[in-house]
Structures are given as structure tokens and as C-alpha cells.
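Each letter names a residue; C-alpha cells follow underneath. Both lines appear below:
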Amino acid sequence: MNKSELLSKMSEKSNLTKVESERALNAFIETVTETLAAGDKVQLVGFGTFESRARKAREGRNPRNPEQKIQIPASNAPVFKAGKSLKEAVNK
């Protein structure tokens, strides 16, 4: 499902226009992004939790030349952990 398909489904289920659905989805994405960038997490009970986790610097291999070692810098990675209700719905 791509963004336009998601917006169509959202507008059907919520009785909003596609424009209103797009504004709501964009606001949600922007809010989650800003919250994760600030180091906080977004927890939606039953659905899941969005958070960022620190990754340590590490050594890796150059994909073009596997014999060459490269340094991968430390970074923060966004993570989503599914909630119980979402897991159960997917596993039906």
C-alpha cells in the first residue's frame, strides 16, 4: 500500500475528504518525526511504540570491496515496536 492508497482508505473509514485525510496523515508523520528527533518516544497503546535508539560506532565492510574495512559512525535509528493488539491482528 502506498501513500495515496492509504489516504483513500483513511478517507473512507473516517468520512473525511482526501485532502483532510492527507493533512491529518502529514500532521501525524511530522509530529512523530519531531518527537523522535527530540529524543522522546510516541506510544500508542495497542498499536505500538515509535522510538529512537542510539547505535554505536562500528567497523563494517565495503560492499564494493569486501576486503576493505570501513568505519560506520554512531547514529540514532528510528524503531517501531508493535503492540499486542497489532501483533494479534496480523497473526490471525
